[in-house]
Design goal:
five-stranded mixed sheet; 10% strand; globular; 10 helices; alpha/beta
Length: 238
């Protein structure tokens, strides 16, 4: 998925898709950007470039909460399993962007919120209803091959726009707290950073490599600059 807003060229990716790697490569080659913005924070960047993926430890519970800890462990496991199916290492498209940036000497901007903050927010907000819904869907996926509400997805490719919208609506309805923590908050955080970057490099092209599910929300925020009336991020200062 490719979109554009002013001088920002968006590349919407799937973190376990081989097609995403090619799209990142093609977009950077075509646009010849002066800066590459990536959906990463410092800790995830370190994990990618050192090939030492940091595993959550019991001691992390104090920082992100027990629910955030369990969600993080489960998310990593699911991403790993899906990556094996597609033959792509989770985060391969980000690695490609970093590799090209290093080779071409293009600066990189890390625009995402710290993963520990996201997991802590999930831990604070998730409701019992959401927990039971999440557990039910996992059990259905494990023990049932057929489901009336099943959405067929080719995980080796980036989902089309309509599919992303359908999945987003479903997530927002079933898991509002998780949606707010994983999508809404981070959209605001990344939109704010992209707005600053765009103004600092007005006459230069920027390529932003993001998960496809974030692009529409971020572009809407950039057009309306809604974050100026929000408080997200103010309590996140250390």
């Amino acid at each position: 998925m490719k979109r554009q807003f002013k001088n920002i060229h968006f590349v919407g990716t799937s973190h376990i898709s081989k097609d995403s790697i090619l799209e990142v490569q093609e977009s950077i080659s075509k646009n010849n950007p002066k800066l590459i913005a990536i959906e990463l924070d410092k800790s995830r960047l370190y994990s990618l470039i050192t090939k030492r993926k940091r595993k959550l430890k019991i001691s992390d519970i104090k920082k992100i909460g027990i629910k955030g800890y369990l969600f993080g462990v489960l998310g990593s496991w699911i991403e790993h399993k899906m990556g094996k199916v597609t033959g792509a290492t989770p985060g391969s498209e980000m690695k490609k962007a970093i590799s090209i940036a290093k080779k071409e000497k293009i600066p990189i901007a890390l625009i995402d919120q710290e993963i520990s903050i996201t997991l802590r927010n999930i831990s604070k907000r998730i409701t019992w209803k959401e927990k039971f819904s999440f557990l039910r869907e996992i059990l259905i996926a494990i023990f049932s091959r057929k489901s009336k509400n099943k959405i067929e997805i080719d995980i080796s490719k980036v989902p089309p726009k309509k599919m992303i919208e359908k999945l987003t609506r479903k997530m927002k309805k079933t898991y509002p707290s998780i949606y707010r923590s994983l999508i809404t908050d981070r959209d605001v955080y990344m939109a704010r950073n992209l707005y600053k970057i765009s103004n600092l490099h007005k006459d230069e092209k920027i390529v932003a490599v993001l998960g496809a599910g974030h692009i529409e929300g971020i572009i809407k925020l950039l057009k309306k600059q809604k974050w100026k009336r929000k408080t997200v991020g103010k309590k996140q200062k250390k």
